[in-house]
Write a structure and sequence with these properties.
- The relative contact order is 0.24.
- The protein has a single domain, classed as q2cbj1_9rhob like domain (Jelly Rolls, Sandwich), CATH 2.60.120.
- With about 250 residues, it is an alpha+beta fold.
- The longest helix is centred in the N-terminal third of the chain and has 20 residues.
- The model has no long low-confidence stretch (mean pLDDT about 95).
- It is about 15% helix and about 30% strand.
- The protein is built from two helices and 18 strands.
Amino acid sequence: MQLTHNYWFFKEAISPENCQKIIDLGLSELDRLNSIGENTEGVTAGNTQKGSMPKAKPAGELLRSQHDNPDNYYIRDSKVAWLNDKWLYDLITPFINEANLQANWKWNWDYCESFQFTVYKPDGFYNWHTDGGSDHNSKYQRYIYGISPPIEKSGALPKGYVRNNNLVGKTRKISMTLNLNVPGDYDGGNLKFDFGQNSLKEDRIKECVEIRPQGSMIVFPSFLHHCVTPVTKGTRYSLVLWCVGEPWK
């Protein structure tokens, strides 16, 4: 799909006070989950996160074709907590609607997943991935115990399966990432896009420095390949949201 705008961003859209409120909320939820023994590791399709591959090496921002053997690399190292506070949706979704209009996508979506509060410590990263395929092959399916594939070792549902009826038959269409940090809180941890082989060679990989100021937000199609490069110093806090709807027809 050729787009006039591959993403849309809002600089310093969310106040420092609200950014800190989100950080406090996310860290409190992580503490709660840890206190009851819940797994807070960010997982991947295929169970290729750090905790599931203790003998593997970090993939960093290497493309899959650059690995000597992809099975020797884990592709994610982060901690996550899930948030569903209504005030967060009221705060964030107007920007998503505005981006959808201003970027001239005008895609139909009708539901949001839970917010993902993500923590990247030093060396934390998320290798190249997409959030969704956006076609009928990537539709969420209802998880039915004993009929659907078994739950993964990490405790996550099998890829593409959900318990939330509002997600069944839908696919991720629009993704959002909000930077919660004050500039200088961390080094590395950059969001990068790969716009694909049909892009000009010099324009294919884009590092999104636009969202480094605290409270800055980027909205982009869920099918775009992207990564978070390794954090080299400090801790990166972000808030992620996915908007879903029926696949394109």
